[in-house]
Amino acid sequence: MKNITKNNKQNNLISKIKQFFSTNGWEPLPYQIESWEAFLNGESGIIQVPTGCGKTYAALMGPLSKIEDPKNNKSVNILLITPLKALSRDLKNSIQLAALHFNKEITVEIRNGDTTPYEKKKQLANGMN
Fold first, then answer.
1. What is the widest separation between alpha-carbon atoms in the chain?
2. Does residue 77 carry a pLDDT above 80?
3. Do the beta carbons of residue 76 and residue 67 sit within 8 Å?
4. 8 A C-beta contact, residue 45 and residue 33
5. Is the backbone of residue 52 left (phi > 0), alpha (psi -120 to 50) or beta?
6. How does DSSP classify residue 110?
7. Cβ(35)–Cβ(47) under 8 Å?
């Protein structure tokens, strides 16, 4: 019975993710679906595909799909490290789009050398160390 409940929950989360893709006129790639399923099964791994092939959504849609109420999940943070400030801004936009699909209250922030002391203090106060 536990496996049936787990499979139903996993299928619901995968359906939510596919709905996001459909809303944006996209079709998920097989490796993206595989990565979501692996995450939801508690597995980890490395995603290695060329630039522009959907790694961000492959890696983040699983964790984002599990954040249903940020007020009840204050301890949930996703840290994404990028080598370039411009890339972090691009990723923020993609992640924000996906996050808002699951919950309008999820916030996505950037922290780099240009982050002001005020923003850093605010991030620390919100548990974003």
1. 51
2. no
3. yes
4. no
5. left
6. -
7. yes
pLDDT band at 71 (very low <50, low <70, confident <90, very high): low
Amino acid at 19: Q
pLDDT of residue 76: 61
pLDDT the model gives residue 83? 80
Give the residue from 67, 52, 53, 51 showing the smallest Cα distance to 17.
67
**CB-CB contact of 57 with 32 (8 Å):** yes
Model pTM above 0.85: no
Token readout for 108 is 């996505």
Sign of CA dihedral 71, 77, 78, 79: positive
- The arithmetic mean of pLDDT across residues 100-121, rounded, is 86
Cβ–Cβ < 8 Å for 92, 82:
no
